[in-house]
Amino acid sequence: MLAIRAAAADVSLVAVAKTMTSVAATTSSEPPGLSASASRGARTGSPRQRLQKLLAVPGYDPSRVNDLLLLRPDTDGQTAAEPKEQSGNRHVVFFHGDIQNFEEEMALQPEGAEWLSWSLEQVALILGRRFPGRHVWVVRAGRMYLHKFSSYHNFVESNMFGAPEHSPYSPDSGAFLQLRALLSHGMERAHLPNPPRPPGGADGPPSGFSLTLVGFSKGCVVLNQMVYELAGARADLQMSHFVEGVSDMYWLDGGHSGGSETWVTNQHLLKELAASGVSVHAHVTPYEVCDPMRAWVGREHGHFIKTLEEFGARPSKNLHFEDEPPSIENHFRVIQEF
In which residue ranges is the amino acid composition biased (Low complexity) (predicted)? Predict the structure, then answer.
């Protein structure tokens, strides 16, 4: 998250509000070049032409909708190591932080132009270069309080500022259930083959189906909730095949407005994550983990890494911009550097 702290950090919240852009409301129209009709079925062309916006995609409950941005892979640009027939089964899902929104929404705000390089469209293009040959999905938070504070309440119980209240797996709600339903409905709307079946489907994902999950800043609360759900989801025959498709999870400079649980520290949960075979990646900057006003963030990050290692996992860990002053700019730049 972008300096959205607990109630005790109201002073820093005001300071950030003066320097950061505000994002617009959560409804939007199709911008030029992103209409579904123009991009439907696109396989080649410029990256912009391969972007498709899907609005109000329903999750496991019709009332739990999220907007999605899809970047289709450039199949003509794939190498022999990335067969075209596999690209339809490989997906990257990104959960953004505060402030970030569709670029036309950000441009409506007086100071939005300063941060347009980190709009959802720009992030999708960055991820397309980072993960060539895969479908890239950007999930827009279901609610933006005061047009800037992202809340992933469709995935995890959250307050108005987006601080989460994590809970164990339930077959009737939660992050995995919401993501599976969003991908199922999103792929159907985008006319992609072999979508994962919604809840109750008898079949698992198609052969070769893989998911790479990336959370940035506030978006890391969704990954944290999935760690809370992991044991129960793996034990549920209706969900286990989908969960087994998760190959990698990337935490990018996680943060939120609560005063704890920025990183998962529960040993039982981390033991399950270590045993799951998911490759864990943690990329941080001094902005989040070296702030003396929020010292718990750095401690929790260290505990997260150490505990996973004790349970036999080999998480990749990187502190970016270690020799530079903490800044929001570098906080964003981790999206390019990871």
Answer: 31-48
